[in-house]
Amino acid sequence: MIDLGAGFRDLGTLDALGARATPLHRLDPRAKVLAVAAYSLAVASFGRYEVSALLPFALFPMALAALGEVPAGYLLRRVLLALPFVLLLGAFNPLLDRGVLLRLSGLAITGGWISYASMALRLVLTVSAAVVLVAITGVDGVCQALERLGVPRVFALQIGFLHRYTFVLAEEAGRMLRARELRANGRTLALKEFAPLAGHLLLRTWDRARRIHIAMLARGFEGEYHGRQRLHFRSWDALFLGGWSAAFLLLRVVNVPLALGCLLTGAAP
């Protein structure tokens, strides 16, 4: 049987990490959301052939992960889940862009490979920042911050509900697979069985979601998101946001690895 237990526990890891009490967790969620947004914009603004200038941006998610006590192994697993998508999207870059831009020890490196590396690096950086943001803020905190920042309430609610209903989906899938294993007498799951199982899973989760919605309405839900904490934007929050934003601007203007290389070798920039 497919083991959903590990996946189910992994889904709850974000909630457990977001409930910690480090100094980063106590910052206003709006400051953290805005800082990650500024970071993503800075990373995305680089040209397609930029690689070395992006490397110093790795300090941001690494610093937040260390200060927020986010396990490196968990962060790496989350990033690896998203990596195949960008590897597939950029797979044709080396075939379409064959102009030689760099030679290393006689090896010609085309623009396609450089743009491919830049795309993959930017994905790793932005996904890492997003995962760390949720880990040090919690899904509820992120949704509350988005709503207070002016994001449409429906969008913020959908993010929170998507996270919560993932647990419902995993629970219903686990029940179905356990029931199938008890009736299959050790027979492995055949490929042709996936379609009917997926259909039954959709119907079961739809009915479960309907019952949950009725229960929410019975408890007075009116489409408004209520977070667990009151938001207070303090001086520490402004310092966090302003300091990191200034660092992103500096790293965007100055290619630090190139400047250090020129300084050490004495070459002209």
Overview of this protein structure:
The protein is built from eleven helices and two strands. The protein is mainly α and 269 residues long. It has a domain at 20-137. Strands 1-2 form a two-stranded antiparallel ribbon.
Mean pLDDT: 82
Number of E-type strands: 2
Largest sheet: 2 strands, antiparallel
- How do the strands line up in the largest sheet? 1-2
Roughly how much helix do the residues carry, as a percent range? 55-70%
CA radius of gyration is 23 Å
Distance between the amino and carboxyl termini: 59 Å
Cα shape: globular
Runs in which pLDDT lies below 50 for 5 or more consecutive residues are 1-5
Strand content: under 5%
What is the H/E string?
HHHHHEEHHHHHH
Specify the number of helices: 11
By secondary-structure content and strand pairing, the structural class works out as mainly alpha
Task: Produce a short descriptive summary.
This protein is mainly α and 269 residues long.
